[in-house]
Amino acid sequence: MYDEVPALRDAKRADIAGSWRCVDHTEVTLRPDGKAVIRLLDGQEFDFYDRWRLSGTGTWELTDERMGWNDGQHVRMALTSRTASATRAPDPAEPLDEPAERAPAPVAYTWTFELRRDNSEELELYFFFGDPDSRSTYVLTRE
Predict the structure, then answer these.
(1) Residue of 58, 28, 59 whose CA lies nearest to 42
(2) I need a surface site. Which of 25, 69, 92, 125 has the fewest CB within 10 A?
(3) SS3 call for 16
(4) Which of 44, 58, 72 lies closest to 139, judged by CA?
(5) pTM of the model
(6) Direct distance between the N- and C-terminal alpha carbons of the chain, in angstroms, rounded to an integer
């Protein structure tokens, strides 16, 4: 039903540490000491439809713990101190049936990033957004 993503098992903390970017000025900096700086990061899975974007600080870890959607390693990142939130403009592909009341941006939030390598073997961090059955990916690439 879904494309298989090979389980990544060879990533090191040093491979993960650094700045990662995505669309619309999203930037995540994962420091070697396990601290994280988050700027304008959207929610994953169904939270994406609430259109909030979070900024702040938190922590991250590379783990082999079973979580997320794929086997292998994952990065768990927790926003523990929100400094700002913004609202993303709706994407044309988003559902048209607006909820009567949108959930407010959370004060704290945890993301689970899947790991994969692109065609040139560079590491990518990603999570699924929207309906998990659609498998839309939000990909962060190294700065």
Answers:
(1) 28
(2) 92
(3) helix
(4) 44
(5) 0.86
(6) 33
* Six token digits for residue 72: 């292998």
**d(C-alpha 79, C-alpha 30), whole Å:** 12
CB 17 within 8 A of CB 64: no
- Please state, in angstroms and rounded to a whole number, the distance separating the CA atoms of residues 10 and 7: 9
Tokens 């609202």 found at: 87
More confident residue, 90 or 118: 118
* 141, 122 Cβ separation under 8 angstroms: yes
What mean pLDDT is predicted for residues 63-92? Answer: 87
CB 102, CB 114: distance < 8 Å: no
Tokens found for residue 87? 């609202």
| Strand positions, DSSP E, 43-134 | 52-63, 74-87, 109-117, 123-129
Mean predicted lDDT score pLDDT of the chain: 88
In sequence order, the β-bridge partners of residue 141 are: 21, 124
State the pLDDT at residue 34: 98
